[in-house]
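Continuing the batch. This is chain 6 of the set; chains 1 through 5 are on the previous pages. Same settings as before, nothing changed between runs. Recording input and output for traceability.
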Amino acid sequence: MVNNKVRLSVFVRVIVDPTGVLWHDFKNYDSRKVTGYVGLDNQGATCYMNSLLQSLYFTNEFRRAVYRVPTENDRPEQSVTLALQHVFYELQTSPHTVDTVKLTKSFGWDSQDSFRQHDVQEFNRVLQDHLENKMKGTSVEGAIGKLFLGKMKSYIRCLNVDFESSRIEDYYDISLNVKGCKTLRDSFEDYCQVETLEGENKYHAEGHGLQDAKKGMAFMSFPPVLHLQLKRFEYDFMYDRMVKINDRFEFPFEIDLGEFLASDAERDPSDPTV
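Output for chain 6:
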């Protein structure tokens, strides 16, 4: 500030952009011609759904299984499977972006639902439940489980006596914390964090009374296709609303998750990496 005036120095850098994307107005942009792919239209607040659909579309074995489900007598507005087949087909062939109106209508949604954020993990389970039911009795029965089903074990292990209580559960995806975690491996460590039960919080072991114990979980198996949902939103009690976490989060192209398998898990040298 000099004599009540502000002096600004502006530096302009000219970038050579051979793709034309940075300076393109996209009015006549042909995504299919330039990239070989087209995207999905956003109905208002369906970006979470679009990201999941794109991920499923590029899972080739899943896409082939969806195509093989018989839907000759179905209507797109009433059949989730047929509507999903149409979306996948349009993503392969359409010269323009693809809308998902018939798919959301098949879920019984109206226009207001399309402008409301839904939980992507819940949406994924509802979608896969529809598909699993539709696949029963067909040549692709069980395809969802073969691709996405893994097993995890929750346990409480006593420290001073030989006693362990455990339960093995199925999972189709994993919801990982982003806040407080810098990398994907940090998120897995947070997910598998072990809690010590001691003092007033001792564990009552059957036949052994109150005991110091460790409580945690470990994976018994990972599926061929592992879906990871990152918790990018959390509830803000002060403002009474969900807020987005914009912290930097790093993940590698490949990661070995063997360290997060339970000690009694069946270890296969061909187990997938993510």
